[in-house]
C-alpha cells in the first residue's frame, strides 16, 4: 500500500502566485495609463471651453476679459476659491462673471506631483493693459501630469514632475 498524497508543492504554489502578481502589475499599469489619458482629455476639453469663452468675450467687448489688474487669477469657480501652486492664486468674481455669460465654467481636477505639491485649476492673466484700462493681451495656464499633453497649447516640464500648459492671446 502506497501513501501517495495529491497536491501542490510549495515551489509550485510560489510560481503560480508570482505569475499572478506579474499579470496584476501589467494590468494596473495599463489602467493607470488610461486614467492619465482620460484626465488629460478632460483638461484639454475644459481649456478649449475657456478658450472659446475668452474669444467670445473679446468679440463681444472689443477686449480680452479684464479682471481689473495684470495679476494671475483663477478661472472658474474653485471649491476653495483658490488655484495654482498649492492654492496661491485667488478667484476673480469679475473675471468669472464675464466668462459666465458665455459658458458654464468647468473645474479641473487637482494634481499632486511627486514632491507633494498640489496644483489645481486653470489660471488667467490679463498680461497687457492700455492706459485706458483695456486688456489687450492675455494668457491662460494649467497643469497636467508629465505624461499628459497640452493639445494646441505651448508647454514646458517643471522638475520632471509636472507639465505646464499655456495659451497666449493675441
Overview of the molecule:
With 170 residues, this protein is α+β, with helices and mostly antiparallel strands. It has one domain (11-169). It has two helices and nine strands. It has a five-stranded antiparallel beta sheet with strand order 1-6-7-9-8, covered by helices on one side. A four-stranded antiparallel beta sheet has the order 3-2-5-4, with no helix packed on it. The longest helix is centred in the N-terminal third of the chain and has 52 residues, at 10-61. It is elongated, with a radius of gyration of 24 Å. The model has no long low-confidence stretch (mean pLDDT 85). It comes from Candidatus Yonathbacteria bacterium RIFOXYD1_FULL_52_36. InterPro entries: N_methyl_site, Pilin-like. This is Type II secretion system protein GspG C-terminal domain-containing protein. It holds the Pfam family N_methyl.
Provide a short characterization of the protein structure.
This protein is α+β, with helices and mostly antiparallel strands and 170 residues long. It has helices at residues 10-61, 93-100, and strands at 72-75, 82-85, 89-90, 111-112, 118-120, 122-129, 135-144, 154-158, 162-169. It has one domain (11-169).
